[in-house]
Specification:
Helix content: 25-40%
Pfam family, one: Abhydrolase_1
Protein name: Alpha/beta fold hydrolase
Distance between the termini: 31 Å
InterPro entries: AB_hydrolase, AB_hydrolase_1, AB_hydrolase_fold
Number of strands: 10
Organism: Streptomyces xiangluensis
Number of helices: 10
Largest sheet: 8 strands, mixed
CATH class: Alpha Beta
GO molecular function, one term: hydrolase activity
Structural class: alpha/beta
Order of helices and strands: EEEEEHEHEHEHHHHEHEHH
Strand content: 15-25%
CATH superfamily: Alpha/Beta hydrolase fold, catalytic domain
Length: about 290
């Protein structure tokens, strides 16, 4: 897609060239990107541990933005957004709601990946009228099995990556099979497609605060997920090491109106490895009456 094709009728259609905007609310200046058609219910993307705007797979964003308005953002203290990053998922959810409402949105669909899926669950519980549908990918419920181990895994694989001169996401997001290794390299290459107006990297303090929030989420008592009545699409790879895949099955079983998609020979980043299938599944789910 060339730059001329990235904007049609004044609407940005490519994440690679979506301008980074800002708005201020609740004492925070939030950095965000906004693309896709203006009609219909917007889809707000909430991202993973250590991620900034540039960590979303452009194939996933562009695929969904072909049919729906997509909004990605840096939460408090992340990337180009100001403020101090909270140490609880609940506080992160409150900040996300502040951002969504500051955009003037009263009804949204939410796609939360990994830590973002934890934040999305809290938003659905605390602000049920705000959320129409949920997509929870590579994530798990409060108190979910193995979630408290994310800190140890992240540190180990970061060291592993340093010694092998690779990106930690190659180990954290993808399997070590031939398919997984190839998918990881392709994903990491896609993250570099945007060459101008790139976001700031997460600070070590913010990263540490996020790790503490995830650890606390893993130690919490299970939430009553029966209160989330919205339709939910749960997706993951079959071999997720970061948030063990059985948590996705647990979510789908405990949520009253959920469906589960598991991708074969895939890990935490299953939706990126199988981006074509995921986008098709997500659009089918979002566009269903």
């Amino acid at each position: 897609m060339n730059d001329a094709e990235d904007v049609r009728g004044g609407v940005v259609t490519s994440y690679k060239n979506a301008p980074t905007r800002t708005l201020t609310a609740g004492g925070v200046t939030f950095a965000y990107r906004d693309l896709g058609p203006r009609s219909g219910v917007p889809v707000v993307f909430i991202t993973h541990l250590a991620a900034v705007l540039d960590n979303w797979d452009p194939r996933v964003v562009d695929g969904i933005a072909a049919k729906r308005r997509v909004i990605t953002f840096d939460n408090r203290g992340i990337g180009a957004s100001t403020g101090s990053t909270p140490r609880t998922i609940q506080a992160m959810a409150k900040d996300a709601v502040t951002f969504i409402r500051a955009l003037g949105l009263e009804h949204v669909d939410v796609h939360g990946f990994s830590m973002g899926g934890m934040i999305a669950q809290v938003i659905a519980q605390t602000e049920p009228r705000l959320v129409r549908k949920l997509i929870l990918s590579g994530t798990g419920p409060a108190g979910g099995e193995g979630i408290k181990n994310v800190t140890v895994l992240s540190h180990l694989d970061t060291v592993r990556a340093l010694f092998t001169l690779q990106d930690p996401k190659q180990f954290l997001f993808f399997t070590r099979t031939a398919n997984g290794r190839r998918a990881g390299k392709e994903f990491l290459a896609r993250l570099k497609e945007r060459t101008v107006d790139r976001d700031k990297a997460i600070s070590p303090i913010s990263y540490n605060n996020q790790l503490k929030a995830i650890h606390r989420w893993g130690l919490e008592q299970p939430h009553d997920l029966s209160v989330i009545h919205q339709p939910v699409l749960v997706a993951n790879g079959e071999s997720d090491r970061m948030v063990p895949t059985k948590n996705s099955a647990d979510l789908a079983q405990r949520l009253p109106n959920a469906e589960l998609v598991i991708y074969p020979d895939a890990g935490h980043g299953g939706i990126f490895q199988f981006h074509e299938q995921f986008v098709a599944e997500a659009l089918r789910f979002l566009e269903r009456p």
